[in-house]
Amino acid sequence: MTGGDIRLIAAALAGIILAIVMIVRGRLHPFIGLLCGAFAVGLLAGLPLADTAKAVQKGVGDIVGGTGLVVALGLSLGAMLHLSGAAASLATGALRLTGPKAAPWATLGIAIVIGLPLFFETGLVLLLPIVVAAAKAMPDEGDRDATKLRLIMPALAGLGVVHALVPPHPGPLLAVEALNASLGLTMLYGILIAIPIAILAGPVLAKFVTPGIKLTEPVMSETVVDLAPPPRGVSLFIVLLPIVLIASGEMAKLIPGLNGGGLLAAASNPVLALLITNLLALPLLFGRRLSEAKIQDAIWFETMGAAGAILLAIGAGGALKQVLVSAGLSDLLARLVMMYSISPLLLGWLVAVGIRLAAGSATVATITAVGIMPGVVAASGASPELVVLAIGAGSVFFSHVNDPGFWLVKGYMGTSTADTFRTWSVLETVISVAGLALVVGLSYIV
After folding, report:
1. Which position has the higher pLDDT, 252 or 57?
2. Of all residues in the chain, what percent carry a pLDDT higher than 90?
C-alpha cells in the first residue's frame, strides 16, 4: 500500500467517525451527520472542495431518484394497510387459527409475509402492537414476561430477515441495481436462506435469551381513523401483489412465450409494481370512504412524515458513498482483494458491518457498501447476487443506540435499554452472522 492509499483509508475512517460523533454525541439527525462526514472524507482525501460538493449532489440524486420512489411507494402502501386495519386483520386472524404452542411460529410467518413489501419501521409499527396484544392473552407458563417475548421475538426476526435479505425491500433492491445482479435469483437465494435464519433468530433464540427479562407497559400504536377492516382475502392480495408482479416478470424473462408482449417484464419493475399495488389498494381497502378528506389526509400525512426522515437519511448515505467512490476507495478495495485474496463476500459483509455500527441505518450501510463494491465484484468474478446478500447480512449487525430501530423496538417491547441489547441487538447479530455463513455455504453450491 502506498502513502496515498493509507491517506485514503484514514480519511474514510475519519469521516465515518465524525458522522458517528455528530449523530450519537451531538444528537443530530443522520442527514446532517452523514453529509458532514462525506465532506470530511473528500477534503481529507485530497479532493477539491468543488469536486466533493459535486460528488455529494450526485450521490444524493442517484439514491433519491432511484430508491426514493420505492421507499415512498412502500411507505404509502404501509400507511394504507395500517389505517384500513388490513394488517391488523391479517395478523389477528392468523393468530386465532393457532394454539399457544404454534403462536410463535405463526407470528414468524406473519412477519415474513407482511414485511415483504414494507420498510422495516413500517412493518414494525403495523405488526408489533398486534403481537403484543396477542402476547397478553397467552397462557401464563410461570414467567409471564418471557412468554410474551417468545411471541414478540419471532415477529422481529421475520421483519429483520426480509429487511436485510429479500427484495423488494429498498436496501437489497438498491444493491441488486448497483451490482447488476439478477433480481429473480437474488429473491430466490434470499428466501432460501431467510427462512432458516428467521427460525434461528426467532423461536430458537427466544428460548435462551428471554428468561429473567422484565417488561414494562409498551408504547402502543393508536388507529388514526375508524374503519371496518377489509376482508382478509383482499388484505392478503394487496400484501402479496407486488411480490407476485416482480416474481412473474423475472420468470417471464426465463420462459419464452410467457412475457405477454412485455407487460409482465414491465410490471416487474419495483416502482411500477408498487404503484399498481397502491392504486388497487386505495379502493379495495377503503371502499366508498376513499373520497373522505380525513381518510386521504390521514394516508398521506402518515406517508409523508415518515418518508421525509427516511429519504433525507438515505440520501445523505448516498452522498457519503459517492464521495468514497470518487476518492478512489472502491478501486483500492478491488486491488486489495486481488492482492491478498480476500473473499468478496467477507469484504462486502465487513464494509456493511462497519457502516452499520457507525451510522446505525441498515439501508445507509447497504447503500455505502454496494457503492464501493462493483469494482471488487468485476475484478474477482464473484456472484453479484451473493455479494448483495452478504452486504444485506452485514447491514443489520448489532443494532445499538445510533439506530432509530433500536429505540422503536425498545418502546414497543417494553424492555430496558440493557435488555434491548440482550434481545434485539443479539437477534440482529444472529441474523447477520448466520446470513454470512449461509451465503458463504451457498457460494460452494451455486
Report:
1. 57
2. 28
Question: Which DSSP state fits 229?
Answer: P
Q: Residues with Cβ < 8 Å from 146, sequence gap 6 or more?
A: 210, 211, 212, 213
Q: CA triplet 175, 302, 366: central angle to 5 degrees?
A: 15
Distance of alpha carbon 91 from alpha carbon 135, whole angstroms:
12
Mean pLDDT within 52-57 = 94
**Residue 307 to residue 75: CA distance in whole angstroms:** 7
Evaluate whether 127 touches 157 at the Cβ level (below 8 Å).
Answer: no
- Lowest-confidence region among 28-32, 132-136, 273-277, 419-423: 132-136
Cis omega before residue 211 (within 30°)? no
Burial class (CB in 10 A: 0-12, 13-18, 19+), 198: buried
State how far the Cα of 411 lies from the Cα of 416, in Å rounded to an integer: 9
State the Cα–Cα distance between residues 175 and 190, nearest whole angstrom: 13
pTM for the structure as a whole: 0.72
Q: Which helix (H) or strand (E) holds 270?
A: helix 270-286
Q: Is 445 exposed, middle or buried (0-12, 13-18, 19+ CB in 10 A)?
A: exposed
Comparing C-alpha atoms, which of 224, 235, 280 is closest to residue 90? 235
